[in-house]
Amino acid sequence: MVFADAVVYHPTVTHFLKYIATTVGRDKFLRTIQYFSRFYAWYLYRTNNPQSAIAPWEAMKKQFGTTRKIMRLGKFVEHIKAAAVAADAKGMDPILKYCAVGRQLGYTAYITLDNISAIDAIGIRKFDNIKKIQKEAYRMWMTGLLFNTLAGLYKLYQIKAHSSTVNKQDAEGAVQAKKLEREQNATSLQLVQDLCDLAAPSTALGFANFDDGFIGLAGTVSSLLGVYSTWKKTA
C-alpha cells in the first residue's frame, strides 16, 4: 500500500497527468508512436521479416496517423488567429514578423486541407481528388516549415550578434548571457525539429528521395524533441 501511494502521488506521475491532459502533449505522444512505427515497419521489411510481423506496425502507423488527423479538426482557426496576431505585432523585427505570418498562413492552409483528408480517411465522404488534396497539404506544410526554419536561422544570427556585445564579467551581463543561452538552446531545438520534419513533405513533393526508414527516424527525433519541449512547459 505504501509503495502504491508512493507511485500514485509521485511528482512525475502528477506531471505526466498534466502533460497528457494537453492536446499538444497527446499529439506529440501519438506522433512519436506513429513515426517510430513507420521506421520500424521499414526496418522489419528490410531485414526480411514476415508480413505477419510487419502488419501490426503498419497498422499502428496508419491508425495513429488517422487519430491525429481527427484531433486536428478545426485547428486551422488557431493558426488564422496566430497569423493575425503576428501581423499586428508592434515593434517586431520585420523579418521575424514576415516569417511568423508566412508560417501561420502555411499551417492554416495545411491544416484546412488536412481536415478535408481526415473526412476522407474516416469515411464520412470520399473525394475523387484526395491525392491532389494531400499533395497540396504537404506543399503548405513545407511552406510553413521553411518560414520557421528561416526564422530560426535569423534568430540564431541575432543571438550570436547580441552575445558578442554582452559583458559577462558584471552581474547584469551574466544574467543577460544566461537568458541568451536559453533562447539559443530553444531556437536550436526548434530548428532541428523543423529540419527533421522537412524530410516527409520534401519527399512527398519530389524534392528529395528519402525512404520510409529515414522519414520515420527523422519524425521520431522531431516528435521526441516536441515531447521534451511540451514536458518542460507543463512542469
Gross morphology is globular
Question: For the report, how would you describe the main beta sheet?
Answer: none
Give me the strand/helix succession. HHHHHHHHHH
Secondary-structure-based class equals mainly alpha
Instruction: Give the strand content.
Output: under 5%
Q: For the record, give the distance between the C-alpha atoms at the N and C termini, rounded to a whole number.
A: 27 Å
Number of helices: 10
The stretches of 5 or more residues where confidence is low (pLDDT under 50) are none
- Overall mean pLDDT stands at 92
**Number of DSSP E strands:** 0
Characteristics:
10 helices; mainly alpha; 0% strand; single chain; 235 residues
Walk me through this protein's architecture.
By secondary structure, this protein is mostly helical. The protein has a domain at 1-71 and 210-235. Helices cover 82% and strands 0% of the residues. The protein contains 10 helices and no strands. Helix 3 (23-46) runs antiparallel to helix 4 and helix 8 runs antiparallel to helix 10 (212-233). The longest helix is centred in the middle third of the chain and has 34 residues, at 130-163. It starts with a helix and ends with a helix.
Topology (elements, then pairings):
Elements: H1 2-8, H2 11-20, H3 23-46, H4 51-71, H5 76-88, H6 94-121, H7 130-163, H8 171-197, H9 199-204, H10 212-233
Helix pairs in contact: 3-4, 3-10, 5-6, 6-7, 7-8, 8-10
Can you summarize this structure?
The protein is mainly alpha-helical and 235 residues long.
